[in-house]
Design a protein that fits this description.
With about 170 residues, this protein is an alpha/beta fold. About 30% of the residues lie in helices and about 25% in strands.
């Protein structure tokens, strides 16, 4: 699906003003050789001020990471990235682990705050991928359409995301 897309890449220095920056984490519950990759994505929504009324806000992919680490290492990595990009919230896909993620996040964030590794605790969010969020194919089609309409722009450092999208089934 994404194999044919030429991702537009913008230097971070050329970003327009952003209305909001958020982080999402797709965590795994383990970090063994057989574990699934975990992923972090930080996106910024273009500031509506100054845009023509008929123009849609663009999403800027500011940071992406994928790999296998312990759940706490991934949360630490995500929190450091949140500080770098000014994310106001950090969301977790909770299909595996459920309520455990909030407790783990709270513990890690508090430890990092106490150690002065971060200066604030982004708001915790969670979401289960269910029929209400659409199936994987439906979500993929929507994202593909947004890429084709120029509504999703990558920034320098989005290589992990681009690689993952190109590996996506059907690509």
């Amino acid at each position: 699906v994404f194999g044919e897309i030429e991702f537009e890449v913008l230097p971070l220095a050329d970003l327009p003003p952003l209305e909001r920056v958020v982080c999402w984490l797709d965590p795994a519950v383990s970090s063994s050789k057989r574990s699934h990759n975990q992923a972090i994505s930080i996106d910024g929504l273009e500031d509506r001020d100054g845009l023509p009324k008929d123009e849609s806000q663009r999403i800027f992919r500011l940071f992406s990471w994928e790999g296998v680490e312990s759940p706490t290492q991934v949360i630490r990595r995500a929190l450091r990235a949140c500080m770098r990009f000014g994310a106001v919230s950090i969301g977790f896909e909770t299909n595996m682990g459920g309520d455990l993620w909030q407790t783990t996040y709270d513990t890690v964030a508090t430890e990092m705050l106490d150690a002065d590794e971060i200066d604030r605790k982004p708001t915790f969010r969670s979401e289960r991928a269910t029929a209400t969020t659409g199936g994987k194919e439906e979500r993929t089609d929507q994202m593909y359409d947004e890429y084709m309409r120029g509504l999703i722009i990558h920034t320098e450092g989005s290589d992990a995301l681009e690689s993952a999208l190109r590996r996506f089934p059907g690509t």
